[in-house]
Write a structure and sequence with these properties.
By secondary structure, this protein is α/β, with parallel strands linked by helices. β4 and β5 form a beta hairpin.
Length: 546
Amino acid sequence: LQARAWAAIDPDPVTAAMVSDAVEAEDEEALDAWFGRRLDFGTAGIRGPVGPGPNRMNRLLIRQTAAAFAQWLGPDSAVLVGFDGRADSASFADEAARTLAAAGCDVATFGQPVPTPLVSFAVERLGADGAMMVTASHNPPADNGVKLFSREGSQLIFDDEVAVSAQINVVLRSGGAPPVVPAGDPVIASIGPGVTEAYLTSVAGLCRAPGNRTITSVHTSLHGVAGPYVIQAFDLAGFPTPVEVPEQATVDPAFPTVTRPNPEEPECLAMAVDVAESIGAGVVLANDPDGDRLAVAIPELGEWRPLSGTEIGALLADHILTHSSGSARMVVGTVTGSRLLECQAAAEGILYEETQPGFKWLTRPALEHPERRFLFAFEEALGFLVGNSPRDKDGISAALVMAEAAACQQARGGSLAERLAEIATEHGLAHVAPLVIRIGDTADPRGALDELMANLRDRPLESLAGAAVRSCHDLATAHVAMDALVYELDDNSRIVVRPSGTEPVLKMHAEVTSSVQGGVAGYRDARVAAGQRASELKRAVAQAIV
């Protein structure tokens, strides 16, 4: 009955036909996958595979979400709509804009694919009441999604998402088919180029060492939208133009050169590293498809290697703190990330704040402490914010500041590899290794994740890989109130286990700390030893979970 009702109001004839065919064929497996639950908000908006039904991303789901968002914002709200380069993003954004306009909102849209940080910036710049950004970030090619932004330019926090979800239920009780204005209706305005120009000027203004601009860099946007923005930002700031990876420079929703367009995965940097080796570059910079994340690779002892999110965060924080001053400064990390940023902040005598993972939380301290000068926030999953605007992670501005950090080290006769070794010598090595356990094909991946977490809570771990568990903090009952377990071991290692908020996976991070001596070679040796120890811990946790 639910499937037939959905097919009757689905504006997309393709997905409507898929549902009707499944009903006629009594394909319970497909219908359960599409209608067994509804896609809901995760760490960063709503994401999922494109397909029919409420458990997939499609035109009807976008309409329902947009109608609910309009109701939550209130009458006559000004709303911006953006979209990335994925296959369905433009059509989904059109559905969102037409729905918002029919609900009485003043709507303005970008006329081409844009990076997510530009949309966040535009909310502040134009004084809008909110924004919808159609993107699945670094998810697999078959996925899409939507992020919702408040009038502050930050993503909605949990309570606001609950309120929007409640409005979605109101839409469903009203028949589930909200009205839309006609396609091409002039009531929907266009966002002019001035916002993009202001954003790029703001990004270029984040540079802090104007005398250091000589660096050869290689950039890839992984078939996404960031490339032209990175090039223009570098030009405005006076840097040499980054060398683009030609095979990955064009927007392509098929992402043909990578299995998954996630820059956390080393294969995504392979082509960029090849280019860097061929031209003798000093740094490789990679953005994910919507431009809000940054991956980095550097030469070290004659070889190229990708940096971890912790290492990138350490270099960016080091550069920003070195080129700023004052006790009113503030940096922000997450309770599930590395403890290194806290050490760097303590050495400077400045405020360090911790939040849940996700930039909807990481940007809150800046809003809550206007008397503080917010400088930097990061999370291990390659999310960085190197200034107070936009109020979301920004891989484009982070790429520029990383290039400046590389140029500064080169100007003093050093390198990023050497600076990492110096930071580790001063504060200790903090090696964070991730593990992702994917949930099998099931209609209720969230239920499967909940069961795994419940099992860990019911069976407390006493030791892991030969180290006693000194304490276990259940963050569900802590001030951050998130579904995560933090195990502190007696060898000063730390394990964090939590379900992903955007994908059907269980995430784990093992942080191993140690002292470092002997420069780059000593740092490499300590990192290798820490990596081996982290692998032992990951295997132990995986066995405990299974």
